[in-house]
Design brief:
Length: 194
């Protein structure tokens, strides 16, 4: 695998782990933006706008001229975005609403290389089994759902609630491998050397 230098505009350990698994050499920093949905904004456009805002916020601050990668994930059910829960009650409400249903997980990825901005989007359908209140409460106490869109982590303990996935598992985790690798290749950044 090749050593690639880029900057990840995210503090997410999940995105860090995925990039590391690809053999990408990178630096990482947090970017704080307003993640609120804008009035009249189409739900499927939200993650792309947020990923682009993260890239631009970092690019003006500290990118040092290296390519900047950012991603954003939203959980959507019936035209409603489920972000990170604000409290235990919010998390239990989210889990209750997602329980026994299929929902969409949309992750957008943006890569800026110089003046070039490349982007891709992953759309995955996830079905959760029925989750009773006692399970949801115990899951909250584990600490895992506190900073996860939709109040669950497919790659962790929350995976026990996932009945089916149609689409990109890594996109649900937070950084779709297929789309990310394609963007890097489009920018001339090789992961595999042959």
């Amino acid at each position: 695998m090749a050593s690639v230098q880029l900057h990840l505009a995210s503090s997410s350990p999940r995105r860090r782990d995925i990039l590391q698994s690809l053999g990408v050499d990178f630096t990482q920093s947090s970017v704080y933006i307003d993640e609120s949905r804008r009035p009249g904004e189409i739900i499927t456009d939200v993650p792309m706008r947020l990923a682009l805002e993260k890239v631009l916020a970092l690019e003006t601050r500290e990118s040092g001229g290296v390519p900047v990668l950012a991603a954003d994930t939203v959980v959507v059910l019936k035209n409603r975005v489920y972000g990170k829960p604000k409290s235990k009650d919010d998390a239990l409400s989210m889990l209750s609403q997602l329980s026994g249903r299929s929902h969409a997980v949309i992750t957008a990825v943006v890569l800026q290389v110089g003046d070039q901005v490349l982007s891709a989007k992953s759309h995955t359908e996830v079905r959760l089994r029925n989750i009773n209140l006692q399970e949801a409460d115990a899951y909250w106490l584990s600490g895992e759902p506190a900073d996860k869109a939709g109040a669950y982590a497919i790659q962790g303990l929350g995976g026990m609630f996932v009945e089916a996935v149609r689409g990109s598992y890594s996109g649900v985790v937070g950084l779709p491998v297929f789309e990310t690798a394609a963007l890097l290749a489009e920018a001339g950044i090789q992961i595999l050397r042959y």
